[in-house]
Amino acid sequence: MHKLRPAFTEDLAARLAEGACINLVSPHGQGRRRTLADLYGCLPSSMQVLQANLRHYPQSLAAMLADLYSQAGLTDVGPDIGGFDDLLDRLPERRHATLIILHNLDELEFGEASGYDAAFFAALNATRGRDGLSLLCVTGRVHGAWLPDIGTVMLPPLTVDEILAELRRRQPPGDAGAWPGIAAWMAAQPAPYTLLEQPEDWP
Question: Taking the chain, what is the end-to-end CA distance rounded to the nearest angstrom?
Answer without folding.
Answer: 29
